[in-house]
Amino acid sequence: MSDAGRQVDLSLISHTNVGKTTLARTLLARTVGEVRDAPHVTDLAEAHALVATPEGDRMQLWDTPGLGDSARLARRLKASGNPVGWFLSEVWDRWRDRPFWSSQQAIRNVRDHADVVLYLVNAAEDPADAGYVAPEMQILEWIGKPVIVLLNQVGEPRPRAVERAEEERWRALVARHAVVRGVLTLDAFARCWVQEMALLRAVGAALPETKREAFARLAAAWQARRMTEFDAAIDALAAQLGRAACDREGLDEEGVRAKLRELGTALGLGRDDEATPKERAMAQLAERRDADIRATTDRLIEIHRLEGKASAEILARLAGDFAVNERLSEGKAAVVGGLVSGALLGLKADLAAGGLTFGAGFLTGGVLGALGAAGLARGYNLVRGTTRSAVRWSDEFLDAFFASALLRYLAVAHYGRGRGEWARSEHPAFWKGEVAAVVEPRRAALAAIWAGRSAECDAAQLAAAVRGELAGAAREVLERLYPGALQAPPASAGQ
Predict the structure, then answer these.
(1) 58-63 vs 180-185, strand pairing mode
(2) pLDDT at 342 over 60
(3) Distance separating alpha carbons of residues 308 and 31, to the nearest angstrom
(4) Mean pLDDT, the chain, integer
(5) CA nearest 187: which of 427, 414, 461?
(6) In whole angstroms, what is the distance from residue 205 CA to residue 147 CA?
(7) How far apart are CA 311 and CA 293, in angstroms?
(8) Residue 64 pLDDT grade (very low, low, confident, very high; cuts 50, 70, 90)
(9) Spatial separation of the C-alpha atoms in residues 389 and 40, rounded to whole Å
(10) Cβ-based burial of 195 (10 A; exposed 0-12, middle 13-18, buried ≥19)
(11) What's the pLDDT at 328?
(12) Which residue has the higher pLDDT, 334 or 383?
């Protein structure tokens, strides 16, 4: 195969100030060019390596100057075959009208280098109001290279049905231009890497036959790189889940007086300004969780080659996130049971696992009366097998933490590098429903994993157990958000 057959060139073209350099940064996963809210910031075409293979295949992306006065540009380019036209375009325009000269360089880049043109449009505009599109499409049609239209500036991620409707509006606008081979959404600020796979398939279909074998290897290399990032992200999140599942904080012996004070606080009686040993233990767990969330999110940012540090997240110090492993003497249990059985109707607790899990259900006086306070204490020690009271995260919390790990992954994976330093933002509302839909069928499997916790809990072993569920859930939610995007890239002729 010739060197020319091993090289694939993509030219990123748009009207001025639509976001080419920002998208280039996102696709390249590194900072290139200059980004300002002004026209004609880029005035020369620049080539940047996208991906290469050991066989010597190369794909590069050209970031080009923005197009300005497109109608005038078309007239000038048609005249550039004579000496006067050459002088006006190469000499006069360069010094007297540099923005117009820069636009000409973009078109020359397409003519001389591009295998496929990536034509970027501002999706925030109504297609009917984008008057620049028609003359620019005429110029591209005159050159004759295949074009893929990319919708940029669409805002935060949206349900696929909404994106598809937007694509159809733009597809109708450019339908009469034979050079257009596809219309895709690829926002510079909120694209997800799986959308790049859809772009690669469109590029591969638009290439001449002589370049498709090399491109298939390039596309496979690109996807392998993204999947390596995916696997590393899942490893980091699974390790965090394993640490959270095994984390526990020992309790000081509380005594009857401390227990009474805690119950009085729950009833709204007495002082509540003094933390109980249980509350202090909960705070210690929450602080470790906070630090681990920030550290793991920083790792996700690093994996995705972004910049910045995770912002501190406000954690709710609610008892509903904690399961209490308590070694109660039968005497203490009798005192506590006597108070609870008659007075704390509606106090939240969970007896199913032999411990108290605040936030999981409602404990009524009748239940405690039927079990008997002393019997409950013996059941605690027998089921838990503990020699010291401790606080740990509840199964319900770990299920929620599993879902939040998926949401955090989506947030980082959708973060376009052009946005600058990564900062936590609210998830699009529809993500939560999609995540809930993939987590719900996995609750039984997760329950079995959490049931494996013991006093000698092995965080690495739990992480390995939960990783398969996490990876499967992440793949499923990506498939729900972008149907078909995760399919393998096209195979080369020799494969």
Answers:
(1) unpaired
(2) no
(3) 13
(4) 75
(5) 414
(6) 11
(7) 10
(8) confident
(9) 67
(10) buried
(11) 44
(12) 334
Q: Beta 180-185 vs 147-152: how paired, if at all? A: parallel
Amino acid at 390: A
Q: How many CB atoms lie within 10 A of CB 456?
A: 6
Identify the top-confidence range among 119-128, 266-275, 325-334: 119-128
pLDDT of 323 > 60? The answer is: no
What's the CA angle centered on 265, arms 262 and 268, to 5 degrees? 155
List the one residue out of 55, 57, 45 whose CA is nearest residue 11. Answer: 45
Mean pLDDT over 53-70 rounds to: 85
Cα angle at 265 between 263 and 400, to 5 degrees? Answer: 85
CA 177 from centre of chain: 35
The CA distance from 152 to 139, in Å, is 21
CATH topology of domain 3-191: Rossmann fold (3.40.50)
Question: d(Cα 321, Cα 171) in Å, to the nearest integer?
Answer: 49
Other beta carbons within 10 angstroms of residue 352's beta carbon come to 11
Q: What's the CA gap between 356 and 259, in Å, rounded?
A: 14
**Stronger pLDDT, 277 or 229, i.e. the higher one:** 229
Query: Which of 321, 290, 312 shows the shortest CA–CA distance to 395?
Result: 321
Q: How many Å apart are CA 52 and CA 48, to the nearest integer?
A: 12
